[in-house]
Design brief:
Elements lengths: L2 E3 L6 E4 L9 E9 L2 E9 L5 H14 L7 H18 L3 E4 L2 E11 L2 E10 L7 H11 L7 H30 L11 H4 L2 E2 H5 L2 E3 L13 E4 L2 H8 L13 H4 L5
Antiparallel strand pairs: 1-9, 2-5, 3-4, 6-7, 6-8, 7-10
Helix pairs in contact: 1-2, 3-4
């Protein structure tokens, strides 16, 4: 049984970034034009030039045979999310030795997956993409789109926590005194579990047997006829171009 020593360590302030190995931004696009709808989720390197966004939007519209009128709202959505992320850059966020529970509740094509697990946001070498691939292998999930969807969901929750931590630091700086206890409507932040409080001064990261059922993944496969009814209401993006991790890794922080 692996144990960890959880002394009362002070939070450390670092420059804002995703609390993962690769500084990739989760992007979610949902655009509807003249009754047609395009939805997608992917990651983007914030250091890529904006010209890449234009090329991506045009290529996506062409590959999916979407009208050119889709390109401007796609651009606006992606650029807006990147601008928000970049607005945090250069500011301090507080990284504390803390474990947070993350939850996955997704439907990708015919696969529905629900799961929850603990994530160490103090580990800046963590890799959501690798975790998602391993999870899919362990659960024998064959659909290649499920892994990327899981990784994006994880990154969205970690991004929310990281951006909220910037708010904590801003409050401390502006008031120049001990900040009051931070409260948020964010489920990810409010579910954070301080290691010291959760495990005590001496504890184990191994889950207790009575808690196993809480962390057991649930996988459902939807029948084709059921999936077909839903497919009529949205675009089939199974052949959509993707911003793959290996395309951006070399330029990531």
């Amino acid at each position: 049984m692996k144990t960890v020593s959880l002394g009362a360590s002070r939070p450390s302030a670092v420059s804002f970034r995703m609390p993962t190995r690769d500084n990739l931004v989760p992007i979610r696009v949902d655009v509807e034009v003249d009754g047609q709808r395009y939805r997608d989720a992917f990651t983007w390197n914030p250091r890529d030039p904006d010209s890449e966004i234009i090329s991506f939007a045009k290529r996506t519209a062409k590959d999916l045979k979407l009208p050119a009128t889709f390109v401007p709202p796609m651009l606006q959505s992606i650029q807006g999310q990147l601008a928000e992320f970049r607005s945090y850059e250069g500011q301090e966020m507080q990284i504390k030795e803390k474990i947070v529970p993350l939850k996955i509740d997704l439907r990708v094509n015919n696969t529905v997956i629900r799961d929850q697990f603990l994530w160490d946001i103090g580990n800046l070498d963590s890799d959501p993409e690798e975790f998602a691939r391993t999870l899919c292998d362990d659960l024998n999930i064959a659909d290649p789109e499920v892994g990327p969807a899981i990784a994006v969901s994880i990154r969205e929750q970690l991004y929310e926590i990281a951006s909220q931590s910037v708010s904590i630091m801003r409050e401390k700086v502006s008031k120049k005194r001990r900040a009051p206890e931070f409260s948020s409507n964010s489920k990810a932040v409010n579910n954070a579990v301080d290691l010291f409080k959760y495990f005590g001064s001496k504890g184990s990261v191994v889950r207790k047997r009575k808690e196993w059922y809480l962390f057991e993944p649930v996988i459902d496969v939807i029948r084709n006829e059921e999936a077909g009814a839903d497919a009529k209401e949205e675009l089939n993006s199974s052949s959509r171009p993707k911003k793959r991790l290996d395309e951006v890794k070399d330029a990531s922080l």
